[in-house]
Amino acid sequence: MSVYGMLFIAWGAGLMALFGGFLAHVEGTANTIAKQELVHGITAFGGGILMAAVAFALVPEGMRELNAWQLTGLFAAGGVIFCVLDAWLQNNEGNVAQFMAMLLDFVPEAVSLGAVFAANPQMGVLLALFIAAQNFPEGFNAYRELRAAKLTTKTALWGLLGVSFFGPLSAIMGYWWLSEAPQITAMIMSFAAGGILYLVFQDIAPQARMRRHWTPSLGAVLGFIIGMLSKQLLG
């Protein structure tokens, strides 16, 4: 497969966030119990996928390539920096935790996608499919979050479209420059893992809980299973 094919696939995986956002736009406000359960379940599903990304993709790469001090420092730095950023945003009446977590998940995975394509294009296509499956619920949640932060529909959807372009940009970095620099890739992933873990526990998981309704949280279990199976199938 050519480099152009890889870039198109990486962009397509990113576009799934836009499609998820468009579905959230069509779905509208969750004004019934059933719709509220669905939205809370999708929020939990996205959180489960993010936790699986931390557990099976980001942290293992850091543990393989970095020493204990590097891994600890970068992971902690990711958590602290996104804690400060999250606090600043909320003090200014903004909350875009899901959007930030989606970026933190997508960018290092797209870097890995480029590196994988350099060695095994068939495996790269499979990885792109799993990234796309992750981006869809994350885009759904991010759109609702952006709208709640008083952004217009057009701005929120343009923002999700903008995210899609991080796919080919990150993939070409992984393909050309980072396939031979696993330590740099591991550093990016470790930093992202710390930020995602903070955002999941501080902002995303609390939004998934629904008082006197217990099934939405099973979405987190399903999301984690999807991430776990993707790791298992990718070896």
Automatic annotation (TrEMBL):
It is a multi-pass membrane protein. The chain crosses the membrane at residues 7-26, 38-59, 71-90, 110-136, 157-178, 184-201, 213-230. Keywords: Cell membrane, Membrane, Transmembrane, Transmembrane helix, Zinc. GO terms for cellular component: plasma membrane. InterPro entries: ZIP. GO terms for molecular function: zinc ion transmembrane transporter activity. Its main location: membrane. It is found in: Cell membrane. Belongs to the ZIP transporter (TC 2.A.5) family. This is Divalent cation transporter. It comes from Halomonas campaniensis.
